[in-house]
Design brief:
Elements lengths: L15 E8 L5 E7 L3 E6 L12 E14 L5 E7 L4 E5 L2
Antiparallel strand pairs: 1-2, 2-3, 3-4, 4-5, 5-6
């Protein structure tokens, strides 16, 4: 049952300190977030899965803050402040 044009709250699993979303080249959403353990995780839309999402997967690194953007070739790039206050990046291959 929709309320005001929205489907209603549904859990994606995991717990986060910070979260962002970006669109992949094919239009699917991908979320990146800092878990309660400061590790970086991501999840992406997957129409083949039961709930429409791929599931929580870890990425290398720990972060205080993160952002994501699309490169000119369409790959997503994650840029973040590490626990040591240095700036890091990770990108789709």
């Amino acid at each position: 049952m929709s309320v005001n044009g929205w489907s209603g709250q549904q859990s994606l699993g995991g717990a986060a300190k910070d979260i962002i979303a970006a669109s992949n080249k094919d239009g699917r959403l991908e979320i990146f977030y800092i878990g309660m353990d400061n590790n970086i995780y991501h999840n992406w839309q997957d129409p083949k899965s039961a709930n429409g999402w791929g599931g929580q997967q870890p990425l290398t690194g720990q972060a205080k803050k993160l952002v994501a953007a699309s490169n000119t070739d369409g790959r997503l790039e994650l840029i973040y402040i590490g626990m040591d206050n240095n700036i890091y990046h990770n990108w789709q291959v």
